[in-house]
Input
Amino acid sequence: MLLTLAAPAEIYKWVDDEGKVHYGEKSPNTTTDRAVETIKIKDDVSTDDTQRANEALKKKSKSLDKNREKRKKEKLAKKKKASQQANKKKECETLKKLLKFYQYPRVALTEGDEYNWLDEEQKQVEIVKIKAQMEGVCN
Output
């Protein structure tokens, strides 16, 4: 439990003979033509003030945590999107190379140690498939 104690303090304000303003915890030893002003400071804080400050701090902390989490999610989403775009670009390049391969006059596919030569009709079927894939990936 927090207890607040009132500890009034006094600060003295005076102006010296040269016109300079001074502040101090003790009254000046020298006498001046001008009066010494006493400023009273009350050093207590009520429990209500403390509770309100704690509530405001909790509210602000929640808000900051929420914003931090939002930024973190946005950063992750941005990274994920960039990664997806890079993968898409890579896949597009692979499809372009594959399309170029099928456009050669003679195309052979290997199955183990054997070569299977494709005729023109088989090549055209593969080219159509690749172009369809490219429309979804390369755009």
Q: What stands out?
A: The CA atoms of residues 66 and 72 lie 10 Å apart. Strands lie at 9-15, 21-24, 37-41, 107-111, 114-118. The chain has two domains: 1-44, 45-137. The first strand starts at residue 9 and ends at 15.
